[in-house]
Structures are given as structure tokens and as C-alpha cells.
Amino acid sequence: MMKTMTTAMTLIVSAGMVSADDFTFRIGAGHPSAPAAYVSDMENFFVPEVIKRAEAAGHTVTFVQAYGGSIAGVAETLESVQNGVLDIGGYCMCFEPAKLFLHNFPYYAPFGPQDSNDAIAAARATYDAVPWLTEQFENEYSQVLLGLHGWDNYHLGTTEPWDTIEDLQGVKIAGAGPNLPWIEFAGGVPVQSTFPEGYLSLSTGVYDGWLILPSAYFGFKYHEPSPHYKLVGFGAVGINALTMNQRKFDSLPADLQTILMEVGAAYEAQAGESLNARQAWGLNGLTEAGATITELSADTRTAWAQSLVGFPNQQAKEADGRGMPGTEVLNAYLSAISDAGIEMPVEYAID
User: Fold this and answer.
1) How many Å separate Cα 83 from the centre of its chain?
2) What letter would DSSP give residue 165?
3) Which of 117, 161, 168, 213 lies 20 to 30 angstroms, CA to CA, from 53?
4) Is pLDDT above 80 for 129?
5) Other beta carbons within 10 Å of 2
6) What are the helix (H) ranges across the chain?
7) Mean pLDDT throughout 62-82?
């Protein structure tokens, strides 16, 4: 009888070991899914891919999806992942200019990669070269970096037409934050803002332009109050992060941890093509909507870049002064761009 009971208990325990485990993750972002590629890819790539791979491994994963700031706004997502309000969050590091100052390094070297594949690759090469960038998420903000994403090529939309840097003197132009010095160096008046505020602010004259990518300019319908879109080519940037709360991650079985890391890497790997497609979608949409699209002359672009020639070194030294490896990171990023054969209109130097 004892042997029979022991055998039965063993079968029950074994059955429990191979039965499906149920996990629920709260995932969110401050931007809505449709206009923001990094959020669309969270919803349409990351979430279903995790569910599929987890199911194959014997786990049932359910996502509670909260985009468009329904749980955390664009400047709140880092903290929401840190404190566990969100298990997984996607966010532009541009909205954390203090806490993630150095992670904004792609903004500190403007006129870089024009193709989003190159931008994501250069950012990844920098993270690999300087592990501090990845480790800071865990050491200071209690979260695991699952993957990078970004924005497609930045240009400039305005309510009125312009052709030279002189035309921008005193013009109020909005941006995310770390890229506002691009405007300041050109003599414009930088105004920090967020995408959800843009339409009304452009309509009412709070500012007169946006430093923005075509996918967002069209997606948020900025072309309606501000119909002039100038192709400047400030560059695409690998500046968005997908992270997971460290405590939640550590509580998971090892195979599910591996799945999340692998799908995070796959999310990053497809980001460049996704962003390039979104760039084309935005430009086509603007054209069909009747926006006026023009291209900045090469001479004016070079002059603008020349005004920013000391900016990367300035930001590197600022980071160094904050106890961060600023010089190392900016040198690694510029080397990654150079190694990829990407030519910039000026040569940046970090001393």
C-alpha cells in the first residue's frame, strides 16, 4: 500500500512539473501604438511572439496592454517599470534627460545615420562596447534591458516656409528635449514638448515648428496646422528602450526568462526595417495629404552641422563630469558610424 501511494504521489508531482504555468504581464508605453513604430512593434511583434514561444515551452502568457499613456505617460514609463506598476515598458529615453542622460548619445551626434538599420546597429555596437549603458538599467532602476528601438530620420516641420538657417532666427520650435540644442545652435527658440501636445500647440501658435520624423508628423496630423515639411536629415536614432522590472523577471522560470530576452533581441533586430517602412509611410502620407515637402540645400545642411561640431564633445564632457563614461560612449558611437562607412557632413572629435 505504501509503495502504491508513493507511486501515485510521484505521478502527481511529475504531472505538476510539466503542466502549463500561467503568467500575466502588464506592458505599456506613453505613446499610442499606431503613430509610434516602437509601440506598434510591442503590440504586433513582441507580445504575440512571446505568447507563441511561451506556449511552445508549456507556459501560458497573458498580456495586459496599456499604450497611449493609459497607465504611464512618456516621461513616467521608466519609473513605472522600476516600481512595478508596469512589468514591461517601452519608452524614448529622450524623456529622461536627467536619469538617462548618457543613453541619449545618438542625439549628441546629429546628421548621423540616415537609414534606421544603420542607426539601430550603431546604437547596439555602442551598448556592446560600453556595458555600463546596459548595467545602469539594473543597477539604478531595477530593470532588465530587453531590446532597443528608435525613431526614423528626423526632419523639420513648420507652419511657415523657410530655406536658410537665418530664416529660423527667433522661431519657436518644439522637440523632445535632448535634440533641442540642434535648434538652439541654429538660432531658433527651443521648446520642450511631447507628441500629444503638438497639434493644439501648433494650431494656437504656442510654437511654430516641430523637430520630428515624418511618421510622427503625419501620424499625429501635424501637417494640418503646420503644412511645410523640410527634409534636413538630422538622422535616425536608436534611442528607445524596452525594459522589464527586475524583480518580476527574476521571479520567472529560466526558460521564460530566455524567451523574453530572445524576443527582445528579435524586437530590436526588426526595428530598423520597421522604422524605414514607417518613414516611407509618413512621407507618402504627407504627400498625399497635400503637405509641402522640400529638401534643405547641401550647403545649408553643412553649415548647420558645422555650428554643432563641438556638441558631441560638450555632451561627452558633461557626462564625464556626472561620473558617467561619456567620452568612452561618444567615441564608441562615432567609431561605429565610421566603421559602417557612414559619412557625416562634419567630423566630430572627442578629446
Assistant:
1) 21
2) G
3) 117
4) yes
5) 6
6) 2-18, 37-41, 47-56, 77-83, 116-129, 132-141, 180-185, 195-204, 214-219, 246-250, 254-269, 271-288, 298-307, 311-321, 326-339
7) 97
Mean pLDDT of 157-164: 96
pLDDT of residue 20: 56
Output the pTM of the full model. 0.91
How far, in Å, are 18, 161, 297 from residue 12 at the CA level?
10, 74, 74
Query: Where is 228: in which H helix or E strand?
Result: strand 228-245
The contacts found for 248-256 with CB under 8 angstroms, 24 or more apart, are 248/25, 248/84, 248/87, 249/144, 252/23, 253/21, 253/59, 255/57, 255/59, 256/21, 256/23, 256/54, 256/57, 256/59, 256/61
Alpha carbon distance 106, 216 (integer Å): 19
Burial string for 192-224 (b: 16+ CB within 10 Å, else e) reads ebbbbebbebbeeeebbbbbbbbbbbbbbebbe
Look at domain 20-339 and name its CATH class.
alpha beta
Residue range 92-109: average pLDDT? 96
pLDDT in tens, 288-302: 999 999 999 999 999
How far is Cα 123 from Cα 85, in angstroms, rounded to an integer? 28
Check residue 151 and give its pLDDT.
96
DSSP β-bridge partners for residue 320: none
DSSP string across 262-277: HHHHHHHHTHHHHHHH
Share of the chain above pLDDT 70, in %: 94
Domain coordinates of the chain in residue numbers?
20-339
CA distance 109 to 111: 7
Per cent of the chain over pLDDT 90 is 90
Is residue 137 within 8 Å of 241, Cβ to Cβ? yes
Average pLDDT over residues 330-346: 97
